[in-house]
Predict the structure.
Amino acid sequence: MSPGRSSRRQGRSGRQSGPAADGPAPSPAGGDAPASRRWSVAAGVVIVLAVVAAYGNSLHGPFIFDDVPSIPQNPHVRSLWPIAEAMKAPPQETAAGRPVLALSLALTYAACGLDVAGYHAVNIAIHVLASLTLFGIVRRTLAGPRLAERFGRHASVLALAVALLWGLHPLLTQAVTYVIQRAESLMGLFYLLTLYCAIRSHGARRPAGWLAAAVAACALGMGTKEAMATAPVAVLAYDAVFLSRSFRGALRRWPLYAGLAGTWLILVGLASAGPRTQSAGFGLAAISPLDYAKTQCQVILHYIRLAFWPVGQVFDYWGWEIPGGLWDLYLPAATLAGLLALTAAGLALRPAAGFLGLWFFLILAPTSSFVPLSDVAFEHRMYLPLAAVAAGAVLAGYTLMQKTAGPLTGRRAKAVWTAGACLTAAAAMALGALTHHRNAAYQSEFSIWQDTARARPTNHRAHIILGNTYVALGQYQQALLEYDTAVQLRPDDPDVYVDRGNCYATLNRDSDALADYDKAAEINAPAIARYAEAGQEMPQNMQKKYSAVYNNRGIIYRRASRLDRAIADFNRAMELYPAYLDPIYNRAGAYFGQGDFDKVISELDRFISADADKAVAYDMRGAAYLGKGRFDQAIADFETAMRLDPNDESYRQHRLQAAEAMKTATRPAGTSQAGK
């Protein structure tokens, strides 16, 4: 008899050729034996320590990319009351339409402010809890009625191996270390909790509490991320395979599935508002459903490759080409079709093995099928599907060792099992080391985009953002090289011309800046015209981008004293995005250059009423008041500017000049300073 298989005779003698048993196996409903419970606690401690060690170096990575508009620039995170406001986010941002995610960010802000370490700590804690929950699911599954004979005696050991290989895998770093992708890991935690509670409810003496907990976890997951939509189906499939042994038997627990299905209404209600229409949906202009499905043939195989060989990870896969031809499309499509066929055959012939394939493809379906998303690939989407890969690898290895050690006895058998345990431990340590190394790429905005541009040199967005990072570091020539590369890769993208134009403007290369702003305006014009002809309002982020082109070009015209052209551009910028304040201030500067102080004061009154903490606005308005001889108001504005920015000495000088001008204006005719 092979190790791990129990029998009455073996149970009485306690004799086996494999490793020592890990204690009595739990039943799905509970009732752990004391020895098994102690082993589980020890395994839980190992999981916690291992995951924390692997992710410990991620605590001080900064907010990057979508983190910035979703957290530091998100006004909704700054207050917990009213709670409805804390559960909102700006339209089109990651947390929009995901109230549970938004509330978690607001709670973290309440505790930590903008200390990024606090956000990372919460993400790590979520991942630890998910790893522990996966341990519980795998342990109870292997000790359950379908698999107990094969795996039950070592259920805890195998569950620990699965949880460690999954929790330490570097493919999950994006879901844990990239702060805003708490969306994925938090949804993953609720997904696993839904399944765990459903398992515990089966055969429990008082199942109502576990049933309610399963439905509550599912509802929270629906409010966290849309991929949770597959959870009720996954739980039903699990029940049919492992617990009730048939779909008809599983549906006898109809109150559970009625409750889980009811949570879909939450998802429907949240999606009806269209919170992220520019990044997902059939109306996405960037890619058609068919073309998106073509890319996923390659993307899913890429995910699988990274699962087994996690080298060459990429933060941003923007610019993934739509495949065509034998090697790029048909072979990946055929391979994927083969894997789906194996999954279907497995469900029919070996349901336990087939369930792993079902779990993998089912959870990927919302993001990796034919519903277009603006980003065709993101590694965080493998957060839950990877659990199936980890479980399959561990159980396949265990089965192989059973077959290898089965005919052997004594020391030779023990050597086989020891080698297997050492191999698993080595794999876990290697994955943890790779995760620790991968986290290093997230230590700065510069390092993550440099890594991305190096890994995918055809990603023009990576070159644009890396160029912006060089600008922030004052390395303008390096920035221009990155912008030039981006222009070569995507000459029809207006964003790169705006950013390169800004860099040229900083270097006082005004003619080059104007050329780039003109090109950006030319590219944007058809889209602006389409919205105008349809009588539709542009999405806010498009308003901002298009408006910035005219605002920035107006600044160059103003600097060149072409004030009429500058004012025309500032007017256009304000038409495109009425909430944009910069063109108001800049137009005031153009009016100042024309000597029209009344318009300057009117513009700055409007600007200050909307953004009252800008010292430069008070300074300019003070100068306009001074130009009109309204000395008291000029002095008051200069004093406000001094209070807002006490380090700028020019405001103090302007106040002194205004005071002196007032003295001169009020001095009696015929007197002089010397005669006073």
The first helix runs from residue 8 to 13. The domain at 457-580 is CATH 1.25.40.10 (Serine Threonine Protein Phosphatase 5, Tetratricopeptide repeat). The two ends are 117 Å apart (CA to CA).
